[in-house]
Amino acid sequence: MIEMHDVWKTYPNGAVALQGVSVRIDKGEFVYVVGPSGAGKSTFIKLMYREERPSQGSIFVNGFNIERLKERKIPLLRRQIGVVFQDFKLLPTLTVSENIAFALEVIEAPKKKIKQRTAEVLELVGLSEKASALPNELSGGQQQRVSIARALINNPAVIIADEPTGNLDPETSWDIMNLFEEINRRGTTIVMATHNKEIVNTMKKRVLAVEGGRIARDERRGVYGYEN
Amino acid sequence: MKISTFARHGREGFRNLSRNGWMTFASISSVTITLLLLGVFLILAYNVQLFSQQIEDQVEMNVLVKDGTERAQVLELERQIKSLPAVGEVTFVSKEDGLQQLKEKLKDNQELLNGLESENPLPDKFIVKAKNPTDTGYVAEKLSALPLVEKVNYAKDTVEKLFSVTKFVRNSGAVFVVGLSFLALFLISNTIKVTIFARRREIEIMKLVGATNWFIRWPFLFEGLLIGLFGSILPILLLGIGYDYLVRKVAGVMLFTFAPFDPLVYSVALILVGIGALIGMIGSMMSISRFLRV
């Protein structure tokens, strides 16, 4: 599903974010990416959906060769990846269902399919009743569910989440985590960067620890391993 | 692209216009002013061109034939003149015709010319026009070199001055038009930049969910197009009304006749709409590219 071979990333300002990262993530896996702030986690995540380009090394995501991917082919890659952010990235002027449908509208899906899929994913994240609410009428946890629904609507092979519970209280974080667990059970690969020690330690999933731009640990049923 | 998508882009572009009301107003105004100046200039330039054309077409040379040349030789000379490629119209005026014309000109004072019939001092001459009026100097030189030609007369200084004026008007006009277009382009692209800036979050999300660059560009292209089109309405109306007035009121007072309303104003209107639309779209293209790199 995702493969990196000796990936280096140096930013134009000279900052070295990654130094020779090699990793392989298989279909259906659930992987936590942990590590101190500024250790390269975000870069590691951003390379997967080609927000950043590797300076060196090769990356394959769902069959796409990222470092050779042409600018105008990037949309094709992103249609097969759902991305979830700490700040939700919802459009404040659109309703919940419009925000979710947005992801299908921009790829010109047929109206009927958009309507059907929107209802399906709203049901999955448990927000069918809030379909016509605006984002600022919802709680943080509900907003994150909306953004997860949007990430899911394309039926992506993999969901990449960058600190999805970073802005949420512990109880809500658990709800969100259970939702990811459910999505993963249905066969979607999940890669999640997180600082949430309790969740990582309880869920017992694969843990990748990024430190100083390298993979410091890669454990099957790992733990968080840092003091918060 | 599907028709429904195209309609969506149009709707979005229109919505952007009303969302950024004041900025839209500002850039439509700047396009209006630019196009108005451009239109005034185009109409002016066309009329100046027409005017100088009319004068240029009147530029002619008097080719005086050497005294005592035989008729047959004159005919031969005419053939030679006509064979020069740059020469246009050639009219022969004989001594006798010349005297007759002079008499007509003098009218009441014809007695001044009495007695000249027996010993006509006027030479035979050809009135020659160059095919292209700006070649007049060159043609005059060629003709003076012919053996039977005494002299070639034309208003050398006046003609040269005229040509340098018309050339200046044409060149400075082109510079002016290009400069104004760049100004409008800059203003439109700035407006679009503001609307894009307000929507960069939306653009970022669109890119992240896999929208193509063209999908994102289209609404902004429409927005620029609409700004350009709206900006061309007022200049066209003002120019149409103004020129109509000018042609009606001023015509006849001056020596010069204005170019007719139809087709000049229609062509200028078409040019203004075209330029408005074009700079609108180029202006938005210029501003978008920076925001598409997500």
TrEMBL record, chain A:
Main location (coarse class): membrane
Family matches, as Gene3D superfamilies: P-loop containing nucleotide triphosphate hydrolases
Domain of life of the organism encoding this protein: Bacteria
Keyword list, A-Z: ATP-binding, Cell cycle, Cell division, Cell membrane, Membrane, Nucleotide-binding
Signal peptide: none
Residue ranges constituting the ABC transporter domain according to the UniProt record: 2-227
Listed InterPro entries: AAA+_ATPase, ABC_transporter-like_ATP-bd, ABC_transporter-like_CS, ABC_transpr_LolD-like, Cell_div_FtsE, P-loop_NTPase
A GO term, aspect molecular function: ATP binding
GO biological process, one term: cell division
Subcellular location: Cell membrane
Membrane topology: Peripheral membrane protein
Pfam family, one: ABC_tran
Record function comment: Part of the ABC transporter FtsEX involved in cellular division.
Self-association and partners: Homodimer. Forms a membrane-associated complex with FtsX.
Homology family: Belongs to the ABC transporter superfamily.
Stated name of the protein: Cell division ATP-binding protein FtsE
Annotated source species: Tumebacillus lacus
From TrEMBL, chain B:
One protein family per Pfam: FtsX_ECD
Gene3D superfamilies hit by this protein: 3.30.70.3040
UniProt domain FtsX extracellular: residue ranges: 59-152
Entry keyword set: Cell cycle, Cell division, Cell membrane, Membrane, Transmembrane, Transmembrane helix
InterPro entries named among the record's database cross-references: ABC3_permease_C (IPR003838), FtsX (IPR004513), FtsX_ECD (IPR040690), FtsX_firmicutes-type (IPR058204)
Topology versus the membrane: Multi-pass membrane protein
Transmembrane stretches, start-end: 21-46, 174-197, 218-243, 263-283
Residues in ABC3 transporter permease C-terminal domain copies: 175-293
Domain of life: Bacteria
UniProt-annotated location(s): Cell membrane
Major location (coarse): membrane
Similarity-based family: Belongs to the ABC-4 integral membrane protein family. FtsX subfamily.
Function per UniProt: Part of the ABC transporter FtsEX involved in asymmetric cellular division facilitating the initiation of sporulation.
The name this protein goes by in its record: Cell division protein FtsX
Lineage: Bacteria, Bacillati, Bacillota, Bacilli, Bacillales
